[in-house]
């Protein structure tokens, strides 16, 4: 391996570590702040930071750029809202693993809606994924997929739609401007959600909540995305996507280490099968990361 490859792997692994820990952070913060408000504040801070960092890319924005930013931001906020709602009803480990099902939804959606060729390993990977989800649900204390697990699977669909939208919108709109716009629209939409559905929910902005939101905004969103983009610029797409999928492993470990979550042997087998499905899918000739 070259130095460039080592550097790329290091950056991408650091990204997945940051994102993996975020599952435990969100789970803990949900005890103090409602899901919609978490998403709103997190992306508002990130929008402000990236607007300053990428301000020169915001000059000369067209109405079409704003519309693309609104589309990408809407898909992102729906993914995060559903994911965060699901995380309130399931464990951080299961939420982390079920979220990464988007790596299967992306190629399937590209085939169905855009006629892109489907890799030979996608359907076997999909079957493995279903087996893993079955093991995961059977190994849970409630004996079956609960509402939080189902919401997390829906979140995977929204993340897949977001990845595809980003790929297509980047062809017409500057990538840095798109980052700022999607964060801004994500925050605005989450605020509307909060005002509509979370008016009477308790908010306890204590030290733990402030630290949690700070981690999510600065590290998970702003720094994490920057590291991801830098790492992917130095590694092939399929290689980068495979490393990024280990986010689910770090998410499960964070749930065990920081939240005291218990993983049964059957659930452990489910995690292993799901991860095998991710590896099988991501080692196709063309990856399905941010550039599917």
Polypeptide structure, described:
75% of the residues lie in helices and 0% in strands. With 292 residues, the protein is mostly helical. It has one domain. The longest helix has 27 residues, at 3-29.
Tally of separate domains: 1
Determine the mean pLDDT. Answer: 82
Summed up, the helix count is 12
Q: Structural class of the helices, strands and pairings?
A: mainly alpha
Query: In angstroms, what separates the terminal alpha carbons?
Result: 24 Å
User: What integer value in Å does the Rg equal?
Assistant: 18 Å
Largest sheet: none
Query: Helix coverage percent of residues?
Result: over 70%
Relevant terms:
292 residues; mainly alpha; disordered C terminus
Topology readout:
Layout: H1 3-29, H2 35-53, H3 63-87, H4 92-99, H5 102-114, H6 122-138, H7 147-169, H8 175-197, H9 207-232, H10 237-244, H11 247-259, H12 265-282
Helix pairs in contact: 1-4, 1-9, 1-11, 2-8, 2-9, 3-7, 3-8, 4-7, 4-11, 5-7, 6-12
In a few lines, what is going on in this structure?
This protein has 292 residues and is mostly helical. Helices cover 75% and strands 0% of the residues.
């Amino acid at each position: 391996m070259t130095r460039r490859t080592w550097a790329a792997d290091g950056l991408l692994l650091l990204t997945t570590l940051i994102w993996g820990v975020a599952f435990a952070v969100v789970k803990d913060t949900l005890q103090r702040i409602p899901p919609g408000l978490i998403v709103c504040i997190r992306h508002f801070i990130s929008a402000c930071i990236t607007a300053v960092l990428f301000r020169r890319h915001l000059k000369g924005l067209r109405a079409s750029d704003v519309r693309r930013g609104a589309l990408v931001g809407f898909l992102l906020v729906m993914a995060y809202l559903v994911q965060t709602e699901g995380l309130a009803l399931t464990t951080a480990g299961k939420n982390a693993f079920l979220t990464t099902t988007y790596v299967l939804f992306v190629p399937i959606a590209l085939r169905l809606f855009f006629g892109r060729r489907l890799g030979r390993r996608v359907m076997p990977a999909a079957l493995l994924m279903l087996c893993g989800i079955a093991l995961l649900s059977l190994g849970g204390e409630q004996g079956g997929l609960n509402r939080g697990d189902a919401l997390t699977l829906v979140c995977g669909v929204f993340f897949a739609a977001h990845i595809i939208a980003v790929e297509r919108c980047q062809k017409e709109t500057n990538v840095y401007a798109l980052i700022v716009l999607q964060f801004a629209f994500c925050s605005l939409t989450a605020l509307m959600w909060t005002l509509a559905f979370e008016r009477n929910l308790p908010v306890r902005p204590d030290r733990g909540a402030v630290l949690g939101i700070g981690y999510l905004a600065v590290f998970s969103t702003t720094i994490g995305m920057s590291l991801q983009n830098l790492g992917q610029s130095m590694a092939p797409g399929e290689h980068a996507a495979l490393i990024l999928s280990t986010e689910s492993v770090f998410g499960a470990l964070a749930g065990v280490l920081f939240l005291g979550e218990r993983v049964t042997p059957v659930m452990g087998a489910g995690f292993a099968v799901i991860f095998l499905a991710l590896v099988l899918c991501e080692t196709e000739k063309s990856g399905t990361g941010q550039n599917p």
